[in-house]
Write a structure and sequence with these properties.
Heat Shock Protein 90, 669 residues, 23 helices, flat
């Protein structure tokens, strides 16, 4: 009897394990579908949510956490930051419960990114600090270096220059430990640039120049470095100006000024170059006051046209000092007041200080005293705020380390009790290892089967192409036979009949010739028909342009947008590789999503053309627009930029507030 019950229990356990394995396999398949970039984003979300739903049924936290991380990634690439915030708080709790350090580090990093984007620097630094400690324990050098660079960026913004420099140096040291093929050159450039910035703020100009030169050396190793190289060169010129080496500054500004591509690429940077050049020429006395004034006016006009308040602020300060030096006090006061108002709107405290000091020099009597007192009060307030933020960051570092030490102590106490229960858990651990190994083997088999399926699909595509070629050959042979056996035979018979009537002018012969002429006209029509068949690709199906049109119809209908689609018939899509076509499809998809989410547009125009073997794509909406140079790049724009770079294309974005946005992409074939 006991043996019978033991047998029943064994069967039930085996049945339960088989059922769980099958369910886990389905979850893995759903995750893989959610991670498939070739599937429409809405479907990927459905697969991810279904994976979470099935994972909850397993009551295994690790399975649920893995599925939720897939959904978190989709929220990140889709730019849904509120949902990203919510799910990563859930992931953080789950990871803490099951002590998954990798997942916990990832959740903290994403929460830091969320607060960083929303400029909540205290919270961002707190989560980044937790993430970097976890990445350090995991020996994940790449992520540790990237998070440290983000922390340094926050500290530079909050004027904690010493803390910024320390974290940036740590970031560089970690990244340079990686193999060269795994370098994150973007982060390496950014960390060096931060050190150069804070060195300049601390008036360590030689050190700042050293690190700006390092950023240029990093640009030499990057594929697309024009923007970063331009910014580094402008910063170097500005650095010599701050050193009061105006001769070198003028030479560098002049070199940038004569680069015709700068204005086309970034008018706001060009306006700053003009202002710097004007200032250097004035001090060096290498240009007349009228020429200097012309350069300042041109710089001011460009910044105003581009709605570049930061540029207007800097240029206004330069112009005010120019007029002060040339004893044109009214104009100097006008531009100083202008700079003061803009700096208050931008909450640019450092420039507010400079503007107040300048106003105190330009004004007289009580007004001058008021400006000077305001300068002193604000300066004291900023110094207190800087000390406070430095202390706050230091407190986060200290308290987090203290919590870690307390946790380590609790862990030691628990370790003793763990050994007492370890004997009871050995058997279960062995079963778990066997179960996990089986699950991994099935996952590997699934991956292998997926690879085999991909190979079969590829072979089917080749087979289909062979069939198309065979069909073309068969049709051409049929038309050839029709020409030879039908039309040529009729032509030969008609010619012989006409030859027999050639010397006869009887009424009957005339009628016969007319009939044969009609026969020739009929043969002519038949030849036209065959010619038309030859010019028609009878095996052509739905082309890539039709796929794009179907995407536009589906997406614009879902988003409530009107659209206009124009395309050139000169583009031979068959000559374009599949990778490029897939990226074009995804770029359009991402652009439409961005327009729907952010632009408040009602109409979108898409055009495809080709010029000099380069495909030109433009996407224009009539939405609210944005300030291209001031706005931080969201996930959508980053995805588009990444895809364009992947296919060696060039991306340009033009936008004006309330005047819509145009995305122009050129792709070499």
């Amino acid at each position: 009897m006991n043996k019978f019950f033991l047998f029943i229990i064994t069967v039930l356990i085996a049945s339960n394990l088989f059922s769980q394995n099958k369910e886990l396999d389905s979850i893995v398949i759903l995750r893989n579908l959610a991670n498939n970039n070739e599937i429409e984003i809405a479907m990927r979300f459905e697969y991810a949510r279904k994976a979470i739903e099935n994972s909850l049924d397993t009551k295994q936290d690790s399975t649920v956490l893995t599925s939720k991380r897939v959904l978190s990634y989709l929220f990140l690439i889709h730019g849904d930051y509120d949902s990203l915030f919510k799910i990563n708080h859930e992931n953080r709790k789950l990871a803490t419960r099951i002590q998954d350090s990798s997942a916990l580090a990832n959740a903290n990093n994403i929460l830091g990114l969320y607060h960083h984007i929303n400029e909540k620097h205290d919270s961002a630094y707190y989560y980044y600090f937790k993430a970097v400690k976890l990445f350090e324990s995991l020996q994940d050098i790449r992520n540790q270096g990237e998070v440290l660079a983000n922390m340094a960026d926050i500290q530079e913004t909050e004027r904690d220059y010493i803390g910024c420099e320390n974290n940036a140096i740590k970031s560089i040291a970690l990244i340079e430990q990686l193999p060269e093929y795994d370098y994150n050159l973007e982060t390496l450039w950014y960390a060096n640039n931060l050190i150069a910035i804070v060195s300049a703020e601390l008036e360590q100009y030689d050190k700042a120049l050293e690190y700006y030169n390092k950023t240029l050396a990093i640009c030499d190793r990057m594929e697309d470095s024009y923007e970063k190289r331009l910014f580094s060169n402008i910063n170097i010129a500005a650095l010599y100006r701050r050193k009061k080496d105006y001769i070198t500054a003028e030479r560098l500004y002049q070199k940038l000024y004569t680069d015709e591509s700068v204005y086309a690429y970034d008018p706001t940077s060009y306006s700053m170059i003009l202002s710097g050049l004007a200032n250097a020429k004035f001090i060096n006395k290498t240009a007349s006051n009228s020429e200097v004034k012309r350069l300042f006016n041109e710089a001011y006009a460009i910044s105003k046209k581009e709605n570049d308040d930061v540029g207007l602020l800097s240029i206004s300060m330069d112009v005010s000092e120019f007029y002060l030096e040339t004893n044109n006090i009214d104009s100097a006061r006008y531009y100083a007041d202008n700079a003061y108002q803009i700096s208050k709107e931008l909450v640019a405290n450092e420039t507010i200080l400079e503007a107040l000091l300048l106003k105190s020099k330009l004004e007289t009597g009580d007004k001058a005293k008021t400006s000077l007192n305001a300068y002193i009060t604000l300066s004291d307030s900023l110094q207190k705020a800087e000390r406070s933020i430095r202390n706050k960051f230091a407190r986060i570092d200290y308290e987090t380390d203290q919590i870690k030490a307390e946790k380590e102590q609790v862990s030691k106490e628990r370790f003793f009790f763990l050994w007492i229960s370890i004997g009871l858990l050995v058997t279960l651990a062995l079963l778990y290892i066997i179960f996990t190994q089986r699950s991994k083997n099935k996952e590997l088999r699934f991956v292998q089967e997926q690879q085999e399926t991909n190979e079969e699909i590829y072979n089917l595509m080749l087979s289909q192409q062979d069939k198309i070629d065979e069909a073309r050959s068969t049709e051409k042979r049929r038309i050839s036979e029709e020409l030879h056996d039908g039309i040529l035979g009729r032509l030969f018979g008609t010619r012989l009949s006409l030859d027999s009537l050639n010397m006869s002018n009887t009424p009957e012969a005339i009628r016969s010739r007319e009939n044969y002429i009609d026969e020739l006209q009929a043969i002519e029509q038949e030849i036209r028909k065959v010619s038309h068949e030859l010019n028609t690709d009878f095996v052509s199906g739905s082309g890539f342009a039709d796929i794009i049109k179907a995407l536009l119809e589906t997406q614009t209908k879902a988003y409530g947008l009107d659209y206009k689609f124009t395309r050139s018939d000169s583009i031979h899509w068959d000559n374009v590789n599949n990778k490029t076509k897939i990226h074009i499809y995804r770029i359009l998809q991402e652009s439409l999503q961005n327009i729907y989410k952010h632009a408040n547009a009602s109409m979108v125009e898409i055009s495809f053309s080709i010029k000099n073997n380069v495909i030109c794509i433009t996407i224009t909406d009539d939405g609210s627009g944005f300030e291209v140079n001031k706005s931080k790049k969201g996930i959508g724009i980053k995805n588009i930029t990444s895809r364009v770079k992947e296919i060696k294309g060039v991306l340009k974005i033009k936008s004006q507030i309330n005047k819509g946005t145009t995305i122009a992409i050129t792709i070499p074939i």
